[in-house]
């Protein structure tokens, strides 16, 4: 089942915060993603949670007092359950479709995420964490022996049904995640 929520989060940090609230309400293995939503008055970020368990009621309880769109897709159902303001339902529906197809989404939680700690050879990182593919910016080649310093923070993306972790070169002949935990906003010094 997939439960997607669009609470009009202005950026991935706000969407991550919402996801952590939702994750605290469920006690099941999930794949939790953020999804960019375009259109409307401004781009923003929605979230999705995919699980074999029924997460709809705990998620509804968390978002009940907020202005949020909700899309719930159940296996075998002919249509999703939709609720909330129409502009936010649209974003939740987009997130649910992307989660179902595995075509897009920034993955915040997935089975194996907790094993991505420390410096690991690329092959071990993939095997431990369930990451399908490692991709370095600029086409830098990655071998099974390439060392990856996870910095204890991994945010793969979904692409063509796979988990793809984007990496960049760093000092010490290691690769590090492209998305760092504490990003400096562009033009922060202006």
UniProtKB/TrEMBL annotation:
This is Uncharacterized protein.
């Amino acid at each position: 089942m997939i439960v997607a929520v669009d609470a009009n989060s202005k950026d991935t940090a706000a969407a991550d915060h919402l996801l952590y609230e939702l994750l605290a309400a469920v006690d099941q293995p999930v794949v939790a993603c953020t999804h960019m939503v375009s259109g409307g008055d401004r781009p923003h970020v929605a979230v999705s949670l995919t699980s074999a368990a029924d997460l709809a009621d705990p998620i509804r309880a968390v978002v009940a007092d907020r202005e949020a769109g909700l899309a719930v897709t159940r296996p075998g159902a002919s249509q999703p359950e939709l609720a909330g303001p129409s502009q936010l339902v649209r974003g939740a529906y987009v997130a649910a479709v992307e989660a179902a197809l595995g075509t897009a989404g920034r993955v915040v939680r997935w089975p194996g995420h907790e094993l991505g700690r420390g410096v690991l050879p690329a092959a071990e990182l993939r095997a431990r964490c369930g990451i399908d593919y490692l991709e370095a910016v600029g086409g830098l080649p990655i071998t099974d022996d390439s060392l990856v310093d996870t910095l204890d923070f991994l945010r793969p993306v979904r692409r063509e049904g796979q988990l793809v972790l984007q990496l960049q070169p760093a000092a010490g002949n290691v690769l590090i995640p492209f998305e760092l935990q504490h990003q400096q906003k562009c033009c922060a010094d202006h």
